Amino acid sequence: MSNAPRIEPADDLYEKDGYAWSKREAGLLRQRRLGEIDLENVIEEIASVGRSERRAIVSSYRLIAMHLLKWQHQPEWRSRSWRNTINRERGTLEIDEARNPSLAAHPEEQIDEAYRAARKDAADETDLPLATFPENCPYTAEQLRNRDFLPE
Question: How many C-beta atoms lie closer than 10 Å to residue 80's C-beta?
């Protein structure tokens, strides 16, 4: 009798219980039972990890850019809360980019995507016309990442 844990069949486990499915697949991989792997869903999950990492980086750039726009265009409303949000997201971005150097090395695409949303968010939050904010991100990747940078 083997000491290996019993592996439940995949069946609809992927759809019904993602956690149980992931434990099942990890167990099969550890046991090198490759013929039993739910290959299509394993491939999808691996791909989704990369998308999730990218999405987190875009989200941080979006929040940073939106708050920098608000900081720049509504100086009378500047607050410690805005500054704290900017710095918190810069810290999150630093961690996420350190874990994903291939995304950190070429941030332009993430910044462009993030800025399009940040510009609209800033217009919504400030009640300023969308045209108030530049169509292209006015901040460099270095400025977005720099804990000391605030536009004046």
Answer: 7
Q: How confident is the model at residue 6 (pLDDT cuts 50, 70, 90)?
A: low
pLDDT tops 80 at residue 1: no
Number of H helices, E strands in the chain: 7, 0
* Rg of the chain on CA atoms, in Å: 22
Q: What is the pLDDT of residues 55-103, one digit of tens each?
A: 999 999 999 999 999 999 999 999 999 999 999 999 999 999 999 999 9
- For the record, the structure tokens of 147 come out as 């804990």
